[in-house]
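U., I forgot to send this yesterday:
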Amino acid sequence: MTSDLATADSPVLAVARRAREAAAVLAPLPRRVKDAALLAVADALVARSAEITAANAEDVARAREAGTAESVIDRLTLNDERIAAIASDVRDVAGLPDPVGEVVRGYTLPNGLDVRQVRVPLGVVGIIYEARPNVTVDAAALCLKSGNAVLLRGSASAYRSNTALIAVLRDAVASAGLPADAVQLVPGESRDSVQELMRARGLVDVLIPRGGASLIRTVVEGSTVPVIETGTGNCHVYVDAQADLAMAVGILLNSKAQRVSVCNSAETLLVHQDVAEAFLPLALAALAEAGVTVHGDDAVLKAAEGSPATVVPAVEEDWETEYLSYDLAAAVVPSLDAAVAHIRRWSSGHTEAIVTTSQAAARRFTQLVDATTVAVNASTRFTDGGEFGFGAEIGISTQKLHARGPMGLPELTSTKYIVTGDGHVRGEATQTVGGGADAG
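Result:
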């Protein structure tokens, strides 16, 4: 049932209806049919890259005229190399096992009934996302592979890019014999279309927001459609008292500076006081060379005296900020437990890393830190569906229900029970502790 916002003649409701029809066609398709469509998509992206980059150039030009930050423009930009990489990701998804039909558990009851819990598509998946047109293809590929129809609502800043991409996707899907309406762009560039999508309960099965904190909060708080919440990435790197300092510098640099505009880049450095005197000069020099501005506490400011690094005093809001830029908060902590306490207070629950040679410290850190991913002696940048072997990802869920962490194909399915008997009928039930046979 939908609300008054999604009226009968609403273009948003119309595409949702078509998506629901397409989802019914997709659900029973065998893997070979879906994989053929994905390979057609990959080939079409490369073959039509010129029209995609032309449309993207218009979006980039408009963004620059509007004074958009370069980190956002980097997310927005497509070129032949990036399109080829996106196409490669689609081929990778085609090569992954199909989750649909997988038996999660199965058993035979004492009365002879066969019970199986199997994976099934969610149905119609809506994606609301910001200026990252690669998400358009990633989301479509994962949804198609998992038997779902997808409604894509990107930001107005990427409207031309997304329009071109979805035209390519729909043509390729149709050429492979699948309904083109399995992949649709939600019409409209205003927030009204987002509001309608958020209230299309009964037509859209789940919404997944991808973007900044404001977007995610808006969808979570305003949607009547169930939401899988993806989160921001206020990620930490903690350098323990027992750490290989050269390794720690390498992990810190990769976590922070390899690509600053993504959610799995590090935003805060925590250093145990026992190694601060030796580690901070190395880290600050390396960060300076990478062009990173450090927002440091008093201990870091003192260590920075005479350093080539740009270090400014940290204020409280620095500890909660997802910079997505060449900025890093940094503090010295007295213990591992103090580092954990800091992370518990300020973390967004995305990815937290420890650098240590102590198995006991690693074990305690991984036990106490509450995040989708805890990395030991590894960069925070590995929290990614592709790096985890999932192919492209639909997002990184920071909630705890249904899906948590990088979301691949299994996370785009639900389950149903298939109960098979041989003329079985139910007799009189016996009440049992915990609710009994008729508790539902």
